[in-house]
Each structure stands twice: as C-alpha cells, then as structure tokens.
C-alpha cells in the first residue's frame, strides 16, 4: 500500500483491523461474505463485550436483508437481517444467510439465532469463522445442519477471524483488545521531554480519530495530559456532538493533575476516570478507578480487567512513551499503529519492545511520513 488516500471509509477500515476484502473484488460466496463484513464494521466500538456480527440474506443473487449487532442485549446480526428483510417486504424462505461469525445456539439476553434462522426458512448458512465461545464452538453449525440447513464454513475465514479477534481474545482471556497508537519523529522520538513538538499531519489525525471511534476506552499517561492538555473526545468524522460512547482513562496514581485540565471536562457519553493507587482529593465529575500499585505506576493488567468488567472490548492506548512502553513490556498490546514522520522530533529515541511474533500488518505512505500497523 502506498500513497493511500485517507478517506473516512479507509481510515475506518484501517482502524478496525483492515483493509477488508473489497466486495467488488470478490465472487460468489466471498462477495456476499465481504458484504456481511461491511455490515459488521458498522458495529465496531458499539457491541462489546459481544462481537459486532454482520449478516446479509441473499435470494436469487440479490441481497434481501442485512443487519449488524450493535449493542449487547439487542438482537444479533442475523435477527437484524431477518427484520430488515421483513421491513423490505421480502420473504427469507429459501434464502442464504452470510454471517461473519457462527450463529449462536444458546439463550443469552436474546434467543438463539440458529432458531431464528431455521424458523424463517433460510436454507443455507455461510459462516466466516467458528465462534470459540465454549457455549457455541461448532454447536451452532451442528444445530443448523440438524435442521436440514446446508452449512458452509470458512468463507473469507481469515478476514472474519481478524475482524472478530477482539472478541476471541475476550473469550480466551477475559481481557479487552489493546491497540497502541503513537506518532514518532524520524529519529524515533516523541520530542524533547515535556514539550509537544511533533505536529501530527491531518491525514494521521483522521486515522487517530477513527481509532478512538473504534474503541470503548482511551488510556493516557499523566505527562501527556500535563504537556498536551488533550480533551480525548470523539471528533471524527464530523466535528459535531459526540456520537460514540467511550471511557476516558487517565493514569494519575497520586492525583497530581490539576482540576483545570481539559480532560476532566464533562462530555456526554464519554465519562472520564482517574486510575489511582491512593486516595487523592476527589475531582468533581471524575470517577476514581482504584488499582494495585505495580512498578512505578498502577497495575495495567488490573486496569484492563476493570475495563472488561465495565463491558469494554477495545482499548486504545494513546501514549505517552512511558505508558506505551509499560503496556508493551508486559505483553498487553495486541496491535500497534505507528506513524513515523519524515522529520526528526528532536528528542531521545523511545525504546519500544515490540513482541518478536509481530508482523507488519498494513502500511501507508503520505508526503509527510509513513504509517504502519503491527500485530
Ligand atoms: N506522538 C504521540 O503519539 C504522543 C502521544 C501521546 C503523548 N505524546 C507525548 O509524550 C509525552 C509524555 O510521555 P511520557 O512518557 O513523559 O509520559 P506518559 O506516558 O504520558 O505518562 C507517564 C505517567 O503516567 C503515570 N502512570 C501510572 N501508571 C502507569 C503505568 N503503569 N505505566 C506508565 N505510566 C503510568 C505515571 O504518573 P506518575 O508520575 O504520577 O506516577 C507516569 O509517570 C508528552 O510530551 C506528549 O506530548 C506523544
Ligand atoms: Zn446470535
């Protein structure tokens, strides 16, 4: 990938683990699975701790319904697609359902999708990837087959597994997916200590805001608040009212950040938390997250468990360098979005211990520098 034009759609795809298979470039089942993935993308950052499953219903080569799971407790993607077909006055009987993840077969807050699909007369179900949730794990496919429904598994399987990787991690470990984002100078530094020097180019700002939008919690270190005084709000793509909910978390173990910092300002849908190890003077409108001390700060693993308990499935670590290195050193990061400017930032180079198993996942170049995603 080179000289990529960073439209909002492209930024969103990259921020959600893409680029994703282009439906126009796919044929047959893969084409419709790519469409189901496009549906699923609409649920990223909304559905956790559930997976943002996308589904399309196809009859005689035509999409008659589509849906996505966008909130825990709300209907799943399959049921949303069936409802969409109904709203369009289409009959799902005899159709094929393309689903990014194996349909569920258990009673959660909603009924099993296997039942909804069978009752609607769907005759074939094409699944991207199996659901590793022990309550499903092939059980959904078996139930569908027992109802006489033809089942196909693994269509765009790799892309669907990548898409649902945050959910898989949560099922396996109970921890949310952690994305790290940093902009570095050509000298590998964030700039001179205590100063903001690196001006992030606009196209990277788009990506940074797409990453925020895909996340349910942002985490920053105390120095970043003191140096940059950021708001940490959702301002992408339209600079209007916030349209996403996420928690803003500041690592301020001893409560040193003054009450005047902009991050403490109230924002609807974007509550702010202070991660502390002691009992500092309370701040109005700010909830304290009490964490055990570890090393020279708070236990980051405990922070992640606390966030998972709040229903957070995707966390974005926005820096600075100390916090980024802390997350990396403990092996708590799943993916790293690194922007390397063509200009030096004129500070000490940052030591970032990238896991040996990581590979370059995607990359793009702009006239001002290079962006890379590692995972
Ligand atoms: N270019 C970028 O992408 C980017 C992004 C963000 C920030 N920045 C820059 O980075 C600089 C700040 O970075 P920094 O390295 O000095 O500080 P930082 O990472 O922002 O903050 C570090 C502080 O966070 C607190 N903390 C609590 N628990 C922690 C833990 N487990 N691990 C690490 N920190 C913990 C500690 O505060 P206590 O000292 O109170 O214990 C620690 O000193 C600023 O100049 C900012 O402009 C750049
Ligand atoms: Zn379901």
Structure, described:
By secondary structure, the protein is α/β, with parallel strands linked by helices. The chain has 2 domains: 8-171, Cytidine Deaminase, domain 2; 174-374, Dihydrofolate Reductase, subunit A. The chain is 27% helix and 23% strand. It has helices spanning 8-15, 28-41, 77-87, 113-119, 139-146, 157-163, 165-173, 202-213, 222-228, 300-309, 321-329, and strands at 54-59, 62-68, 96-101, 124-129, 150-153, 177-184, 217-221, 247-251, 272-276, 286-290, 293-294, 297-298, 314-317, 335-341, 360-366, 369-374. A 9-stranded mixed beta sheet has the order 10-9-8-7-13-6-14-16-15, sandwiched between helices. It has a 5-stranded mixed beta sheet with strand order 2-1-3-4-5, sandwiched between helices. A two-stranded antiparallel sheet has the order 11-12. A hairpin with a 2-residue loop joins strand 15 (360-366) and strand 16. Helix 1 (8-15) crosses helix 8 and helix 4 packs parallel to helix 5. The longest helix has 14 residues, at 28-41. Bound molecules: NADP nicotinamide-adenine-dinucleotide phosphate and zinc ion. The site of NADP nicotinamide-adenine-dinucleotide phosphate has 27 residues, from strand 6, helix 9, strand 12 and helix 11.
